Give the backbone structure.
Amino acid sequence: MQFNVFKDFFNPKFELFLRDLKINEDFLEMLIYTPLAGGKRLRPFIIFSIGKELGIEQEILERVGFAVEIFHSGSLIHDDLPSIDDDRLRRGKKTHHVKFGEDNAILTGDYSMLLPVKILNSLPVNSEISKKIVALWIDCSLNVVLGEYLDVKMNKVPNKELLKDIYILKTAALFKFCFAAPFILKDQKYDEPEKIGTDFGISFQLLDDIKDEISSSEVLGKTPGKDKKQNKLTILKFVSLNEAKKTAKEIYFNSLKRVSILGLKETSQELRSIFDLIEIS
Amino acid sequence: MQFNVFKDFFNPKFELFLRDLKINEDFLEMLIYTPLAGGKRLRPFIIFSIGKELGIEQEILERVGFAVEIFHSGSLIHDDLPSIDDDRLRRGKKTHHVKFGEDNAILTGDYSMLLPVKILNSLPVNSEISKKIVALWIDCSLNVVLGEYLDVKMNKVPNKELLKDIYILKTAALFKFCFAAPFILKDQKYDEPEKIGTDFGISFQLLDDIKDEISSSEVLGKTPGKDKKQNKLTILKFVSLNEAKKTAKEIYFNSLKRVSILGLKETSQELRSIFDLIEIS
């Protein structure tokens, strides 16, 4: 499946899954707000692309994708809070705390960050595989939180070395999971997929920084140039736009090559199509 | 072991465990602040008491106890935030956000609520048991968050029926886990322990409400009468102090009886000793 049609395939299933959760009705409305507010669904796309090529059952891949998207939304809800990034607009809509209040945003974020563990721990797979998936997941989700902490902290004292750690923890951790999870489900070794996922994630964050620098409001759905305005620490504080583009492309295409070497030719091509869509030059 | 000496046994081990976590040094300082700020250690005491009588290895019980205490601290850090309970004092010390700032309190809370999954998923037990422990754990931790949401919400519209739900979700969920976890570790049925834990938790919350109403500052380590001042919804909004005491005692002692019926005579006596220490009349 191509990236540009994946969203239309994924979103209806995701919405059904969310609306079917057995929790307090008012809370559910708050829980589904951010996951359903949009988003590229890049992370579940990666899981699907690799998982399909490995021959994993679609229903399992869906659930893993839901888990990642729910967590990602939860971490965005917290990042957007006034005491952290103070964002009022996300994916073209009001951020969670603007819509529901800070107290509710904190608790919805908590729930969204915990719920994926339940989803991943109850996949219809044997308990050995289940344990491995949860182990990798919880490490990645803890790293996302730690990365956000470093991000908040290092904005006060810019440091290029730390920036790489932030990229690895805050963004690349989830990609690492997405690349490795299908291999765990297939009961295969997953150290190389983890490494590829990390590199892919780093290049994705670089591309995101670059896009934020050059894009217009319509494309982003968030305040453009905001990172710069907030004096937010990105790679562009240390290198030129051209240099950043060059580095991002190199890492991105090197990841695709390694995906191909793992035998996933189709995935490699599908990931290539993403790059064309988020073209930055 | 008696409850009054358990803290001195548990705390040094807990501190060692926390300080040994392999994470960023500054973040670690924030992570250990609330767990080491005090607390009765009632939840790990229950796990120990039941687990020892069932013959579970001590090191495993310790880790389960650490997990519960870390999560409990994380949820307190979020509850204390200005947009939720706005507490500035907890266990006689500054609350987390007063000490480290709101941004750090949010992220430390996130980490503390996720970390227990890692601890419980890596216990040295077989993967079937591991999966069961994580499944019960994640349900209980999600319920704590949902209970806090209802608590925040229902303070605006008091409702006695909802109060019971709040007690069950916000407080009793963790007790349910503490009562059931040792039985899971022993690979035994755990539905009755879950029920006893829930009832025990409800009675504990009632006792806590009653204590808050009648205690002095030294005993509580938090602003006394604060619940009332904030117009916080507790059982005392609906029944008299005497009636609340009577109900709390009845549920508490009924739980102990059922613990005894399960064959845990020693545990039943140890839990009895807790009641004598938190005597409320």
Q: What stands out?
A: Chain A touches chain B through 42 residues (CB under 8 Å).
